[in-house]
Amino acid sequence: MQVKSCFQHSATYSLTYSLTLHPQKRPTIINFFTLSLGRALHIPSDRLSRILTISIPIIMGMLSQSILNLVDAAMVGSLGSEALAGVGIGSYASFLTVSLVMGLSAAVQTLVARRMGAKQSEEAGKPLMAGLIMGSIAALPLTFLFLLFSSELMSLFSSEQAVLDVAQPYFEWRTFAVIAVAFNFCFRGYWAGIGETKAYLKVLLWMHIANVVFSYMLIFGIPALAIPAFGAAGSGMGTCFALFLGTIIYLVSTLKKADHHGFSLHIPSKSMMKSLAHLAIPNSLQQGFFSLGVSVLFMIIGLIGSDEQAIGHILINLALLLILPSVGLGIAATSLVSHSLGANNSENAYQWGWEVVRLAMFLLLLLGLPISLFADSILRIFTNDEHLIALGTIPLQITGISITFEVTAMVLTQALLGAGASRKVLAINLVMQWCLLLPLAYLVGPILGYGLLGIWCIQSMQRISSSVLYAALWRRRSWINERF
């Protein structure tokens, strides 16, 4: 689906042209697939192609990140269980750190796509510079704060000193790169906003290759080049350097191609900064509370027992891997909805939301059913402990079955961000996660004794309820009147 002859992009990278399909140039098999799938899902083939054009590079990029995490784990795992545990803790903590700047991506993407839809392509690059400035303003104090309290934060996850000795330096190196992460999110938002997600994928792949090379060199050392072996901390160093390299590549690529979209290194207007903050701050808070909630859920599972926490870690990561297609499709929905609203076509925006939901449900059904049927075999890839496999089999089956019904919330969350309804998203997610999921998980799991299975049932019901709530909100169309 990445064959260049399938699509034609204009020299100005207009979203309208970059998403325009040329059937006569497509291979017959792709034409047949798009037409058949579109008919089955009641999505016109040209609109289905537009969704896939944006989402597939993002999904592939996210998948490459998951593969990279496994490669990192393999390299660090050779150093022993304590090193692997320390890097795992540092990764959880760094996810919390970077989540606080994630909102910049959707905010920049929304503003860029809105201008493309309004035929103001010469203004589309200006939100990017506003995002880079806001990313600096947010990332610098966050970096200082997390470095200052890194020891205290790591101690919340483990009491074993050998593990903490690995976790803290790894986390600190990852924290140094928060500003690079913020910039990279802004660049991703810009390229997704104009519909050129292939540029995002190319930079990400180069960044991942550099990450593997840097991490290997710094973990094990290269005596011939006078590079010492830093052990597990070298993995954090390698990731840090690769993230800054990605920022440099993004900047060079953007300066070459985005000047006609109004991007420059000049200070943006006050109104532009205000609009970006209106979108980015609620979304970043929502992402921060979500990642913190995942950590709290992990701690609640730990109150049941260490075995439950061990298999829970595997289940959480499998679930996060499983939802990658819906996340990529959700990012596509952000651009498509915002672009339509910029063109003053709210009905088109409304239809985009439902069409992306239907496609996501179909894909998650294809992925979820095999996981439910072969849950036992899948868990054996990660552990040979029969007790752990027995604990995790039914929860994984529940995930495989319920994920199809949970996907509506994942997609419509992003669609609402494209409409500028970031405050509504923040309010709904706070209530559903912190007022319902976590208290009920604590009550049902450790207190009432229903264990990991009880927590997984509560989590699935919460996500399905969120999907119903988001579907009702999308159907009401109150988001059409959002202003920023």
UniProtKB/TrEMBL annotation:
GO biological process: monoatomic ion transport
Record field: transmembrane: 51-71, 83-108, 128-150, 170-191, 203-226, 232-255, 310-338, 359-382, 388-413, 425-444
Principal location class: membrane
GO function terms (MF aspect): antiporter activity; xenobiotic transmembrane transporter activity
UniProt entry tagged with the keyword Magnesium: no
InterPro entries according to UniProt: MATE_fam, MATE_MdtK, MdtK-like
Membrane topology: Multi-pass membrane protein
Keywords for this protein: Antiport, Cell membrane, Ion transport, Membrane, Transmembrane, Transmembrane helix, Transport
Compartments (UniProt record): Cell inner membrane
Pfam families: MatE
Source organism superkingdom: Bacteria
Any one GO cellular component localisation term in the record: plasma membrane
Name listed for the protein in its UniProt record: Multidrug-efflux transporter
Organism whose genome encodes this protein: Oleispira antarctica RB-8
